Amino acid sequence: MFPVSIKGVLQSPEGLVVLMLNERDEWELPGGRIELGETAPQCLAREIAEELAVDVSVGEPLDTYLFEVIPGKHVFIATYRCQLQGGFVPTISHEHKEIGLFEPSRLPANLPQGYRQSIGRALGS
Predict the structure, then answer these.
(1) CATH no. for residue 39?
(2) Is the pTM of this model over 0.85?
(3) For the Nudix hydrolase domain, which residue ranges apply (predicted)?
(4) How many independent structural domains does the chain possess?
C-alpha cells in the first residue's frame, strides 16, 4: 500500500503555473495527502486553501502514477486541473519554502517529470 497524494495544476490570473518548493528543494504542484472520508477534489481544494490561502474549483483528472519520492519510498500521485475562484494573493504555509510562478514554457529544472507531464496535459502542450 502506498500513500496517496492529490496534486493540482493551477495558474495565476496572468497564466503562470503555481509551484511550491519542498524540503527536498524540488518544485512540486500544490496539494497533499488525502484524508479518510474525503474525495480527491475535496482533498485538493482543502490542501490548496491550506498551502496557499486561495480557493479553487477542481476539474477533471489529468494523470495518475507512482512517484519515487526518495529511493525506496513511493507515493501514488493523482493530478487534477484546478481553476482559481476569487482573488489570487497566495500566502505560503509552513509546509513549503517558497511559492513559485512560472511561465509554462520555462518550468524549473528541479520539477519532477510526472508533474511536468501533468502541466503539459492541463495546458494542452
Answers:
(1) 3.90.79.10
(2) yes
(3) 1-125
(4) 1
